[in-house]
Every structure is written in structure tokens, then in C-alpha cells.
Amino acid sequence: xxxxxxxxxxxxxxxxxxxxxxPYSKYxxxxxxxxxxxxxxxxxxxxxxxxxxxxxxxxxxVFKAVAAGHRQIACVAIYTPTPEPAAPxxxxxxxxxxxxxxxKVVSVCDGDGRIETTLSALLPNSFGPESL
Length: 132
Ligand code: THU
What we know:
The protein is globular and about 40 Å long. It has helices spanning 3-17, 57-67, 90-98, 119-122, and strands spanning 30-34, 40-44, 75-79, 104-108, 115-118. The chain is of the alpha+beta class. The chain has a 5-stranded mixed beta sheet. The site of tetrahydrodeoxyuridine has 13 residues, from helix 2.
């Protein structure tokens, strides 16, 4: 995958965090997913007074991509304004897996640390469409 498109995806994720609705956790997250045709979709976390209804940034981005007609995701970038990068939560790993079991996962933050991995490393022996 082109390093330039990954760098651009990281920037999109960072910008998306500016729209995070996180009044309860005060933990904004931005995400961006890359479709195979190069299109990017961004997302932020959207919390709710009924806390359990919160939607993570990654899932917001995936749902936007799918709603636009995509069925494959090549890469996801996640940004948090924190000193250390954050890996996607378990629920988001499963939702991402549906649309790209081999996708690249990149987490960036305000510090120098970054996580670069794959979904299959984060979610081994996963359950997916082929399992049904
Ligand atoms: N959050 C995400 O947006 N993505 C994750 O992968 C982990 C957690 C959000 C949910 C909630 O709004 C806040 O971060 C604190 O958990």
C-alpha cells in the first residue's frame, strides 16, 4: 500500500477527531477507512446520555463507507489526542473484519508512538461471513 495514502488517511483521522461528540468520556477519537479505489471515509466517536449507545469512531467510518456502496476496506487509521496510540476496541475489530480480514491497521497520536499492524493480528481465528 502506498505510504502516501496511509499518511493522508492518518491526517483524515486526525481531522475527524475534531468532530468527536465525547462529552461524557472526554476522549475524542477520529478514524478513517480506505476503500480499494482510494476513497476515504472518516468517522468520530458519537456518545450518548445512555452510555451504551455510544458509537466508536471506527464503526462510524465503516458504516459511512458501506452506506456509500463499498464492501471492502484496505486500511483503517485511528487518531487519539493522547501521548500513546490506541488500538481499536474488540467490537470495532469484529466490525472491521467483516469488510477486510487482511486490512492494515494504523494508530497514531500526539506522541511519537504509532501502532502498525493488521486486523488478522489483532483478531486471530476470527468469525466472519465464511463461517456461516
Ligand atoms: N472509542 C472509540 O471511538 N474507538 C475505540 O476503538 C475505543 C473507544 C471511544 C468510545 C468512547 O466514546 C470513548 O472512546 C471512550 O471509550
